[in-house]
Amino acid sequence: MIMEIVGIIVSIIILIFSVPGGRWGGLAYIADWPTLICMLIITLPVLSKEGLAKDFLRAFKLLRKEYKCSFSELRHALDVVEMMQKQILCAGVIVSFQGFFALLHSLDDIATIGPNTSVALLAVFYTAIFELLMLPLQIEAKRRIVDYMEQDSEEAEKKQGVENTEKEQDTEEATKEQDIEKA
User: Fold this and answer.
1) Cβ contact 157:22 at 8 Å
2) What is the pLDDT of residues 136-148, one digit of tens each?
3) Measuring CA to CA, which residue among 81, 80, 89 is closest to residue 127?
4) What Rg value do the Cα atoms of the chain yield, rounded?
5) What are the start-end ranges of the E strands in the chain?
6) Alpha-carbon span 137 to 143, nearest angstrom
7) Which helix or strand (DSSP H or E) is residue 122 part of?
8) CB hemisphere CA count around 39 (13 angstroms)
9) End-to-end CA distance of the chain
10) DSSP secondary structure letter of residue 31
11) What is the pLDDT of residue 118?
């Protein structure tokens, strides 16, 4: 899972260098700090509610194979990641609409159409990047929940097998006792 996140980050860096302007000049075309800040202002306050930040950070810890946690902690981490995915999507739509409203407001000035359009589309771009970063967290949490459930079902089957064996032994003993009493 860490490799997916590294791949996403490397892809973004390659994108930055492939944009006209060369070197870090391409960063100017895809870095719009007000858009990013607006998206974060809409998204992050939700994490401060009722300890959701702790569950969100736990989702990142799940990417380490040696990290162990309970089923309820896994479930909380998955719920928070899915909530953050929805929150990021909503923030992207809101900020994108904000950019398009600015575009429509300044249609009489042709020189601002391009920049306003790029600001509006950057919100969609940032939303896609954040969503790509959330997907490995969601997949890892779901995978661990399935593994946890499989372990529980295996343990339940073993326990059921032991109980069935004990019942069979009790039945055989009862049958032998009845045979002895009849004889």
Assistant:
1) no
2) 899 999 999 998 8
3) 89
4) 28
5) none
6) 10
7) helix 113-182
8) 29
9) 69
10) -
11) 86
